[in-house]
Design goal:
GO molecular function, one term: deaminase activity
InterPro entries: RutC-like_sf, YjgF/YER057c/UK114
Strand content: 25-35%
Protein name: RidA family protein
CATH class: Alpha Beta
GO cellular component, one term: cytosol
Mean pLDDT: 95
Number of domains: 1
Distance between the termini: 13 Å
CATH superfamily: RutC-like
Number of strands: 6
Number of helices: 2
Shape: globular
Pfam families: Ribonuc_L-PSP
Structural class: alpha+beta
CATH architecture: 2-Layer Sandwich
Amino acid sequence: MIHPVSTDLFASKAPLEWAVVGNGILFTAQIPIGADGQVVQGGIEAQTRQTLDNLVHTLEKAGAGVEALTQVLIYVTAREDLATVNKVYAEYVREPYPNRAAIIVSGFAREEMLVEMVAYATVDAEAS
């Protein structure tokens, strides 16, 4: 059985939850949208920061922090953006690092998006 994590993130019109917990594992996908539901402007650095801010917020709402991350899958539309993503990512995540993969994709559902992150974390099933 899964249950959603209540966040203050923009309510998507798509049939999804920003995060769910099942068996003590948090499942979440985060994108670079602000409180207004719009993709943030400013290129890959601004979008990566917003995506990670949304991820940290979601982890906190689930009663955890970045130290609970077990795996992060990073999707970008341009290989050359990975250096910037890595620089910003290193400001949020510390050793011991979660397992990670970086994937280059041709695009996202929202054309203006440059990055998306899928993350898994261990959480206290009772706290979320």
